[in-house]
Specification:
single chain; about 280 residues; mainly alpha; 10 helices; about 80% helix; about 0% strand
Length: about 280
């Protein structure tokens, strides 16, 4: 008679810990590629007309009201929001790569300062545009994106505070929260395109750009990534919670698949057609 093979609990615990880190890195790899594809789109589509024509280069762009004649502050806010997006979208993943942080600490510090400054200015510009220009969507949409703007300002302040105090572990956790909040504009596009590809756009009124799913996504674009990040932190703090580790790993596999679908759909349906 075959005897059951007993696996020591320590092996299960170690396997759970490894599953958490492996699936987190897998998702981050897909997300980083998606960020840099979005960066390529921003650089190719927005930078050339702005470089050639200044603020009027926004004319015809898919932004809240785009370029408005005579609205200098609004146009300046829109330009700052777009130009700084390249830094926050392209630089964010670089800040979270341990090898870069360890081998190039000076680069990490300078990029980090630039990243935080760009995130703060971009958030303020985004809030200004959201409440002073014709919104995309409605009031619920405005509240959703405004919540993200406020979180960016709060997370940036706390991350800087811990960096100045040399509490590096705390600083890194808040910097990761800041990354999730700053990347909401990317999460929104990826989530929208993944949902559209998988369901055909159920719950979306395209003409008014409202609907149940868009209301959900308006808040989930930052709430869901932040919730997953907190779950990741919980797994790190509770090394013996093997069941929680495997549940997190399974969820991350699904999230990675959806993220990959969204990146592919956004690239082929939104970004690449305007780049070529």
């Amino acid at each position: 008679m075959n005897e059951a093979v007993m696996v020591p609990r320590t092996d299960y615990t170690r396997l759970g810990q490894q599953a958490v880190e492996l699936t987190a890195k897998l998702w981050f790899g897909v997300a980083a590629i998606g960020h840099w594809l979005f960066l390529a789109y921003i650089l190719a589509v927005f930078y050339p007309p702005i470089a050639a024509r200044g603020l009027s280069g926004l004319e015809g762009m898919h932004l809240p009201s785009g370029f408005i004649e005579g609205d200098f502050i609004g146009n300046l806010a829109a330009v700052c929001h777009v130009l700084l997006a390249a830094l926050v979208i392209g630089g964010g993943p670089l800040q979270l790569i341990p090898a870069i942080r360890q081998r190039f600490p000076r680069f990490h510090r300078y990029l980090g300062r630039s990243y935080v400054a760009a995130a703060v200015v971009s958030a303020i510009a985004g809030l200004y545009m959201t409440w002073t220009r014709t919104p995309i969507g409605d009031t619920i949409s405005q509240l959703g994106i405004s919540g993200d703007g406020v979180l960016i300002l709060v997370f940036a302040a706390i991350a800087v505070r811990f960096a100045v105090a040399r509490r590096i572990a705390d600083h890194r956790r808040w910097a990761m929260r800041l990354f999730m909040a700053v990347s909401a504009v990317w999460f929104f596009r990826v989530g929208l395109m993944a949902w559209t590809m998988l369901t055909g756009g159920i719950g979306i009124e395209w003409e008014s750009f409202t609907g149940p799913f868009l209301y959900f996504l308006g808040f989930a674009q930052y709430a869901l990534p932040l919730a997953m990040l907190e779950w990741y932190f919980y797994c790190q703090r509770n090394q013996e919670a093997t069941g929680v580790h495997f549940a997190f790993a399974g969820t991350m596999v699904a999230m990675t698949a959806v993220t990959g679908i969204g990146v592919f759909a956004a690239t082929m349906g939104m970004w690449l057609p305007r780049m070529v």
